Amino acid sequence: MVLFTAAALLLLAACTSGAVPDGYQLHEARSLAASSLIKRQSTLRPDAVIPIKIGLTQQGLDVGISRLMNISHPASAAYGKHLSVHEVNDLFSPSSETVAAVKKWLANATNIDKTTIHVSKNGWLLAHVPVHAAERAFATHYYEYEDRDGHLRLGCDAYYIPSHLQSHIDYVTPGVKSSPPLRKRMENGRGPPGGRPGRQPLHWEPPYHGPWHKPPGAHHLPPDLQNCGLNITPPCIRALYGIPEAHLNDSVNDLGFYEAGDYYAQSDLNAFFSQFAPNIPNGTAPIPAFIDGAQAPVAADDPTNTGESDVDLDMAFSLIYPQSIVLYQTDDKPQANLTGYGVLAGEFNTFLDALDGSYCNYTYEGLSGDSPGIDPVYPDPLPGGYNGSLQCGVYLPTRVISISYGSAEADLPTRYQRRQCNEYMKLVLQGHTIVEASGDYGVGSFPGDGTPSGCLSGSGQNQTIYNPDALSSCPWILSVGGTQLEPNQTVLDPESVMQDNLTGAPLFSSHGGFSNYHERPAYQKAAVDAYFANHDPGLPYYFANANATNVGANGGIYNRAGRAFPDVR
To answer: With 90 as the cut, is the pLDDT of residue 147 above it?
Structure first.
């Protein structure tokens, strides 16, 4: 039985459209943590038409997980035998019973023509519905919500569906999902304070360690390895991890990078190559896979060049050249910077749209399926916006894609995250590896994400509960934590977990923890059992229920049964 606080019950009562019809059950409700990020404004006009998008329950998830484990295990006869796109779609398509039941109900509940309801190959049911009919069908009220940056979004506080459809529907948009803060993971450079004149860096200043003295163990090292405790360069990375010099360029092994809201400068890359990787010719640039009006590069003094994309490309090119890099730069500048540096309206959806047309949120058989105020809408009406249609299935994903952006689990509904995690599983089944930076703030999110500290509150606790990362908590993502050398260490010394007292960000540290939304996968069981047997932190914990509504129960501060991350450091 799910227990709600008094505040939560009041919130649900306020959002329902009159009495909940007989035979209906609550399907999703906005969490109090997510509600703190937005402010409810006006209701919508009853005759306004909105795009309703229903995520139908997919088949084959258990089979998909079993197939993935066999494909991934070297001892399996199926090792490396990845599935095709068509095989994946056939495996996960919703059942005909699910499609028929939901389609029939929606047509009757909203009084729209059944022929105007479309079903995508990837399990989405799409329709245009008047607000008054949608509110009646889902027993809710739709509102405009204002986020903390003043931008309006469409949604509701909670919605209900008939009990007999609970097992057929994952989630509905517009619904309780609002756009989460999406932050670029910060690289922890070292050196004295300062920056290029005229630049407005939006990352924390690294600590200044004063005049440099050669560490005791550095005297017998080559000159380019003597300063790695203060300045990590490509030779330092090679020495630490035993990476040989690259000499091959195979088109099937291009490395993919996801970037959004931050743009590289070619002159910065050239300067880095000249000093730290002279084997790379000036002008070497990533292969553009630009999505929905994205553009790059920019001038070095452009305010959208904060150095983050530069660092990604600097280091990657230096380690793998002459192998090519593909840059998945997403969204036009008005959308990518809608709420400031590193914050996106649609999180990773337009990226997935461009890789897999069947996942597309925009159009299927001519029907718009975007949720205004949640996912970027194209053509973009904002000044300087992209005038083309949203791009669907236009790029093939590279075998490895690196992502250094993320948000907190608590910023997104449970059902939404599990659905998106399944989409990543489909990419992995096809032979793609998604590598995600685990985060920057220890066991919490960044300060101000839901609470002043970035940690969670709940079950009578105030900002004491761990706040896991949304993407790293997906079991099919390879989550990578950060490490560092201390100023007096060399590449011959063991690394430690990245942690520094940065100006404005004390205890800035590599992120890790246990998911509240995803159970621990079987492949982690032995390692995590050994961790608790030998290194139990002795901290109070809880076991999250199916909807993660009991976070913090019994005074616990982390979910003992959750997916553990990062996978590697």
So the answer is: no
How many CB atoms lie under 10 A from the CB of residue 252?
A: 6
Q: Which residues pair with 465 in a beta bridge?
A: 456
d(CA 359, CA 455): 32
Task: Report which secondary-structure segment, H or E, holds 508.
Answer: strand 505-509
The mean pLDDT value of the chain amounts to 82
204: nearest Cα among 508, 507, 502, 511: 502
Predicted confidence at residue 540, as pLDDT, reads 97
- pLDDT for 374 equals 42
Q: Where are the alpha helices (DSSP H) in 27-110?
A: 32-35, 61-72, 85-92, 96-110
Asked if pLDDT for residue 195 goes beyond 70, the answer is no
Q: Which amino acid is at 3?
A: L
- List the structure tokens of 483: 């490490």
Contacts 24+ apart (CB under 8 A), 212-216: 212/487, 215/487, 215/488, 215/489, 215/490, 216/488
Predicted TM-score of the model (pTM): 0.81
Q: Measured between alpha carbons, how far is 92 from 455 in angstroms, rounded to an integer?
A: 36
Q: Are 369 and 53 in contact (CB under 8 A)?
A: yes
Task: Using the Cα atoms of residue 527, residue 530, residue 534 and residue 537 in order, give the sign of their dihedral.
Answer: positive
Give the pLDDT of residue 150.
Answer: 64
Instruction: Give the whole-angstrom CA distance, residue 295 versus residue 331.
Output: 8
Non-local CB neighbours of 525 within 8 Å, separated by 6+ positions:
none
Higher pLDDT among residues 337 and 123, named by residue: 123
Distance from C-alpha of 368 to C-alpha of 402, rounded to nearest angstrom:
30
